[in-house]
Amino acid sequence: MTVIEVNGLSKRYGDRTVVDGVSFTVAEGEIFGILGENGAGKTTTVECISGLRTPDDGSISVLGLDTRTEREQLRRLIGVQLQESQLQDRLRVGEAMQLYASFYPDPADWRELIAAVGLTDQVRMPYAKLSGGQKQRLSIALALIGNPRVAILDELTTGLDPHARRETWKLIRQIRDRGVTVLLVTHFMDEAERLCDRLAVLDGGKIVALDTPAALIANVGDVDGYRANLEDAFLALTGSGRDN
Questions:
Q1: Can you give the pTM of this predicted structure?
Q2: Which of 22, 51, 136, 170 is a plausible cystine mate for 71, CB 3.0–4.6 Å?
């Protein structure tokens, strides 16, 4: 079953085209990755998919809903963790969960979610006192409080230490195991290779490749006598490795 369908998506800011004719589909139960450097158009793409921005051209359907005209219905079915998510410093973890739960007619049990993301001991802790990894885990729990069928996660491991990143990867797999389709935005090659079933590689607002991580790597072959990895494939696709 196709859960997300994007056809000819374009978004411009003045004379600058940020997303240029992007098309792809995401199947139910996938962890689908959007991979690209900073400024490639990743965040704008997922903001259009989540209904937070209106495309200039193209169409987007999520769970059969038009993201332009059926935004209210869509918001009940998706969970979104944005790159710049912030809460009030004094808001406690439990208070934030209860507040977000009040926005939905049939929310998940927030205590169970807090336990699932490993924040039970921090339930009375103010947001400002949380570590970077704890803030990211809280933002994921908030994205799941409405029992979404689709979770959109944007650069959620940026700034985390290696241990916190690995724990976050484990959590993403657990989200998928709960039956949630995941749209993951990242610029980390190891994250994309470890987590994603398929990847759309964005460069300059365009999709330059769409395949499984293994297939993208296989298309490169050996590099300087060594077996290629996803970073090699990405550099070959985007031209990031060319001399200036």
A1: 0.88
A2: 51
